[in-house]
Design a protein that fits this description.
Blueprint: H1 2-15, H2 23-34, H3 39-49, H4 53-62, E1 74-79, H5 82-86, H6 89-100, E2 113-118, E3 130-132, E4 135-137, H7 142-184
Parallel strand pairs: 1-2
Antiparallel strand pairs: 1-3, 3-4
Helix pairs in contact: 1-3, 6-7
Bound molecules: FE2/S2 (inorganic) cluster.
């Protein structure tokens, strides 16, 4: 498995003739393969093209299109542009990150939310803005942002419970069918 991964990373690097100046396209190709930038791939990249890992990480955090963790079910973007920042976006980001135990650019451990902070989502009149899966939430406060996200989290939990119940009842009816069959034999 690790070999296949290494092969893939080497193929990507080879596409750009190991040119350190092509670091960003290489990272983009890695991300398009995995949906994010796995740590071991970045280590391999760093060793092969002899660019310090710290530089690769600083590139990955500078560009908001790069992600260091797999995508969550919901993509949450907190606008940190000037207007949103002046209206308290920093406090919203802090509150959300501490409530869900995640950092900007990261994904919650249950893979429900991916968070990212970006510069201006183009709706300054609605500042501070949070965007969830492309839907804009305006005039956010730390409390309202947490409320919206907790609502989604509760919805998800409910759906998971329903799924688990369905699975259970399917298993039960299967068992019933088997025992009925046994009786007739
Ligand atoms: S600064 Fe946040 S939408 Fe423009």
């Amino acid at each position: 498995m690790a070999d296949a991964k290494e092969e893939l990373i080497q193929t990507i690097i080879g596409r750009y003739e190991k040119d350190p100046g092509m670091l960003i396209p290489m990272m983009q190709d890695i991300q398009s393969e995995y949906g994010y930038l796995p740590q071991d791939s970045l280590i391999m990249l760093s060793k092969t093209i002899t660019v310090p890992l710290s530089r690769i990480y600083s590139v990955s955090t500078f560009y908001s299109s790069f992600r260091l963790a797999p995508k969550g079910q919901h993509e949450v973007t907190i606008c940190m542009g000037t207007v949103c920042h002046l209206k308290g976006a920093g406090r919203i980001s802090e509150a959300v990150c501490s409530q869900f135990n995640v950092k900007p650019g990261g994904t919650t451990s249950d893979r429900l939310f991916s968070f990212q902070a970006v510069n201006c989502v183009g709706a300054c009149a609605l500042a501070p803005v949070m965007v969830i899966d492309g839907e804009y939430y305006d005039h956010m406060t730390p409390e309202s942002a947490i409320e919206v996200l907790s609502g989604l989290s509760a919805e998800n939990e409910e759906q998971e419970n329903k799924k688990a119940e369905k699975k259970k009842s399917k298993k039960k009816s299967k068992k019933k069918k088997t025992s009925n069959k046994e009786k007739t034999e």
